[in-house]
Amino acid sequence: MKLHHYLHKSDSLVHLMYAAMHMTGGMPARGEEFQTIRWADTVAIQQNIFIYKGMIILVFAYNKANTNTNNSFYIVHSSCPLVQKLLFAYITYIRPFRNFISQQLGILCENSTNPHLFASHNNVTGCFSNNMAYSSLKQSANRCPIALNTSLYRQIVVSIAKKHLPTLIKPFDPNTPKDYGGFLQLLSF
Questions:
Q1: Which of 2, 120, 163, 179 has the most crowded Cβ, counting Cβ within 10 A?
Q2: Where are the alpha helices (DSSP H) in 36-120?
């Protein structure tokens, strides 16, 4: 049936979009942060996709810093413009249509929406599992001799940044910015 074919193709798009957003959004987010991106609000948790000055940004609350210092700390990611256009088209047109089809076919309950961006059409409330994230990165980096998972990809990018971008790695205390540049670095950090 053409509707089921459309739903499976949209799942493939979500897999490719995961890798594209993960690889073009600057320093990669941790897997559990990235897998649980929400495109819709829920009663308990707010969405973390926003539009700011014409760009689509992802905002993550950094849990590790919060537990150590009891201060809120946020990380902002923004993918390349092409991936932002894809994300906009997906959220605006594809995802609502996919939900409508799933509801009409009885896959999802009436008026139910999975708030997670990275989810299969038949997944009512869950997000990508670690295996799904792994298969997405593996499919997108099939020429890489190493099978990349989310944490390994993150470690590789951090190592490259430490070696080749030493000006970005200088010591920085986010609690005491020294000047306007430090304040801007605090915001971007």
A1: 120
A2: 63-69, 81-89, 95-104
